[in-house]
Amino acid sequence: MATPMTAAQYEAQLKKWGLSAKAYRSNWKTHNRTKATGKTFGGVNGVMLHHTGSDADNPALLYNGYSSLPGPLCHAGNDSKGLIWHIGWGYANHAGSGDQDVLNAVIAENYGANPPTDNQTNADGNKRFYGMEVMYSGSHGMTKAQYNTMIRWAAAICDFHGWTAKSVIGHGEWQPGKWDPGYAPGRMMDMNAVRNDIQDLLDKGPNSTPEKPVNDVVKPAPESKNFKEVWKTDSATPPAGHATKANPYWAPISILRGAYEKAEAAYKTAQEILKIVKEIRERM
Questions:
Q1: Residues 16-69: pLDDT tens digits?
Q2: Which CATH architecture is the domain 7-222 placed in?
Q3: H/E run at residue 124
């Protein structure tokens, strides 16, 4: 694990990599959750990428958070124009508890295309990861400016610590039930392709530009075990014998399965009705 950058080192690193940034509030360098929680940021092991779940450019929300989850909700916000917002520095509420197996793979940087399946919540990600929130819903691709800023930001941090792109993961690879950063409802981007773009930047250095941003040709992530199991689960509540504790793959998003099946049935019924109406009209 590594000692986190100071705020001054972080600013210098962004400048080195040609990234523009703006402070949401002047006290961002001391805005963190350490005093409230007694927890400190670091040692650090990697970078985690998120989406906010809304297309609004709203750094205020990232700074303040919610009553149930106080801010800062990340270290960096990334708005629709690709501008970085300084939100906080130190221990932030962005990653939550995730899978220790994933953390071990990130530390060793020895996994294949993707880290192990995230099916546990036994490690504190707020302590171990730098976090960026990209300000978009995740139900569609982010803007090209956002994508280029995101991968350059991740490369800048990896460059400082001497990490490869395998130290960068998506929130959906860390915490069961999450799917950010997404490209469609419930679908995470192909993080292996994202890491390839980050590594390309690292190999070429801070003066390079992305050669082929994955966001230009949206590539879906391979279906994970998590996604398949969630999709197969009954929609409203876990079925008998499959409580959340027993079945870590169940999540509220599985309600989409029930909605999809109902919509599909309604569509087929409507098609049948239209077919009958057409036959009647042809006979008149």
A1: 999 999 999 999 999 999 999 999 999 999 999 999 999 999 999 999 999 999
A2: 3-Layer(aba) Sandwich (3.40)
A3: strand 123-124
80, 55 Cβ separation under 8 angstroms: yes
Q: State the residue for tokens 């599985």.
A: 254
Assessment of whether the complete model's pTM goes beyond 0.85: no
Other CB atoms within 10 A of residue 178 CB: 22
Q: How far apart are CA 13 and CA 119, in angstroms?
A: 34
Residues with Cβ within 8 Å of residue 124, at least 6 apart in sequence: 39, 95, 97
> Residue 132: beta bridge partners?
49, 76
Q: Where are the domains of the chain?
A: 7-222, 225-284
Per the document, the length of the chain is 284
Q: b/e string for 231-250 if b means 16 or more Cβ within 10 A?
A: eebeeeebeeeeeeeeebbb
